[in-house]
Amino acid sequence: MAELAFFAGTMDSGKSTLALQIDHNYRRRGLTGLIFSRNDRAGSGVLSSRLGLAVAAVEADDATNFWQEVVTRRTHGERVDYLVCDEAQFYSVAQVEQLARLVDDMGVDVFAFGITTDFRTRLFPGSARLLELADRVEQLQVQSLCWCGRRATHNARTVDGRMVTEGEQVVVGDTEAEPEPAGGVGYEVLCRRHHVRRETAAVAGAAELSPETLPLG
Ligand SMILES: Nc1ncnc2c1ncn2[C@@H]1O[C@H](COP(=O)(O)OP(=O)(O)O)[C@@H](O)[C@H]1O
Ligand SMILES: Cc1cn([C@H]2C[C@H](O)[C@@H](COP(=O)(O)O)O2)c(=O)[nH]c1=O
């Protein structure tokens, strides 16, 4: 039975890596899939992992109709067994509904990957619809950590190391640029406690995990 699976996690939790692995394993077994991404940090038409791997992807945008993409290909004799959909938080509600229809009416497996909430802890519309419609929601097993050592559960947007709470919902960026480009936007994953307090690593003066702050228990 085909399914719509949503793999959710904070930034930097290994979603794109898992997307590449799933695609690799399905391809090795002779299945044929399509990879979609939207606004990947590495540029347009690519799905990239921080582990260094990247593959070509179809760039989704506002005009993309996933249902039509598959119908057109199948009409031309192409096989489409599954879709890998990265950065799915940026998909529209209608696009997520197209993905669900592909599962139900065409038997296409859909693996979607994305962050659930934005820098203000609000659900992205695409992620909200995925949570509502998915057959299976999986939290990533790799824990990303807050500077204090707790599991990171929230995404903070930073400017000059300080957490900001105003701005557009969508601003492409990375957690790895340290410090982020002058005046530019960066991201940092935090536990809820430090997200609420707006306490980033820079504000706390924590360059790395300290044994004194790390709750090892
Ligand atoms: N140099 C490295 N060595 C080992 N693992 C790394 C390295 N750099 C990044 N990673 C792993 O890659 C993960 C981020 O993977 P990625 O797929 O890019 O995340 P996401 O798509 O969720 O933002 C990190 O949590 C870490 O586990
Ligand atoms: C929190 C938050 C993130 N983004 C952007 C930043 C990145 O480009 C992607 C997440 O990519 P990742 O592969 O999961 O690291 O989302 C955003 O636009 N708005 C936000 O609030």
TrEMBL record:
ATP binds at G9, T10, M11, D12, S13, G14, K15, S16, D86, E87, A88, Q89. It catalyses: thymidine + ATP = dTMP + ADP + H(+). The keyword Transferase applies. GO terms for molecular function: ATP binding; thymidine kinase activity. It comes from the Bacteria. The active site is at E87. One of its GO terms (biological process) is DNA biosynthetic process. Its EC number is 2.7.1.21. It is found in: Cytoplasm. Keywords: ATP-binding, Cytoplasm, DNA synthesis, Kinase, Nucleotide-binding, Transferase. It is an enzyme of class 2 (transferase). One of its GO terms (cellular component) is cytosol. InterPro entries: P-loop_NTPase, Thymidine_kinase. Substrate binds at V170, V171, V172, G173, Y187. HAMAP family: Thymidine_kinase. Homotetramer. Belongs to the thymidine kinase family. This is Thymidine kinase.
